[in-house]
Amino acid sequence: MRKILDVIGQTSLVKLENVVPRDSGAVFAKLEWENPTGSMKDRMALAVISRAEADGRLGPGYTVVEYTGGSTGTSLALVCAARGYRLRIVTSEAFSQEKRDHMKALGAELSLVPSEGGLTTKSLILKMIEEAREMAARPRTFWVSQLENPDAIAGYFPLAEEIWEQTGGRIDAFVHSVGTAASLRGVATVLKNRNPKIRVVAVEPAESAVLGGGSPGPHKIEGVGIGYRPPLWDPSLVDDVVAVSTSDAKAMTRRLARQEGLFAGTSSGANVIAALRVAEELGPEARIVTLMCDSGLKYLSTDVYKSL
After folding, report:
1. What is the DSSP secondary-structure string of the chain?
2. Which among 37, 137, 160, 218 would be 20 to 30 A from 166, CA to CA?
3. Which residues are catalytic?
4. pLDDT in tens, 198-234
């Protein structure tokens, strides 16, 4: 009999049928909402907690602390509930109410940092980090520090192996948005080791296209685009960076629901837009894989779906 943490991973891979133009390559999406909290972040949460336990950084009676836009916090709340840890989360009203409610339902204690008009900005991220740093100074506390924690990268190695197995090794490009960069780096590391010719394409908000050499700015693609190059970013693994606007990402997210039956969040919409650009560039014989990062159930109160 399996336990709740045993069912993380082994998510489905499906082919997009209706949003992909003719004469483009095939685009496949990994349905990461099949993880227990409806997000790919379950993978990294299990990895960082397990590795901290293994080397003694985290033990019985400890409190786990982290800053997060929501999905990482929800995933940490799942793992902490299963493992018996108190969890304190620094977040903001810039991120969806559903995410905050989900974290609290799983036992997390929330501290909210005000945003500038509900937007994700570099200033907001830095304020959240600083508050988490202050919390982490207390005794018997483990700070996840996702932007600087290499254990998060290893959490996505199995995701890459699943993609390789599900495609039978027939993959020409992997396309994914960048928040902490852990998921892109973890998947890219494994896929490039399997086949160095696989193209890896990073996706970021057009309003804050810092990876492509632009300036930081406010945007509304939750979970990505922190306004500066994340410490875990490794440009040697990335072949190209594609910028997608918030409005285009939201529009594609709605199209995915209506035309593909895929109910996802805004970063997934951004992923698909970028994947379609790569598919058009590489041509009809190409096979491109991207991720449905999380479930649309996390965004029902936002203007992605609420205005429909």
Report:
1. ---GGGGSS---EEE--SSSPTTS-EEEEEEGGGSTTSBTHHHHHHHHHHHHHHTTSS-TT-EEEEE-SSHHHHHHHHHHHHHT-EEEEEE-TTS-HHHHHHHHHTTPEEEE---BTTBB-HHHHHHHHHHHHHHHTSSSEEE--TTT-THHHHTTHHHHHHHHHHTTT--SEEEEE-SSSHHHHHHHHHHHHH-TT-EEEEEEEGGG-TTTT-----B--TTS--SS--TT--GGG-SEEEEE-HHHHHHHHHHIIIII---B-HHHHHHHHHHHHHHHHH-TT-EEEEEE-BBGGGGTTSTTTTT-
2. 37
3. 41, 267
4. 999 999 999 999 999 999 999 999 989 999 999 999 9
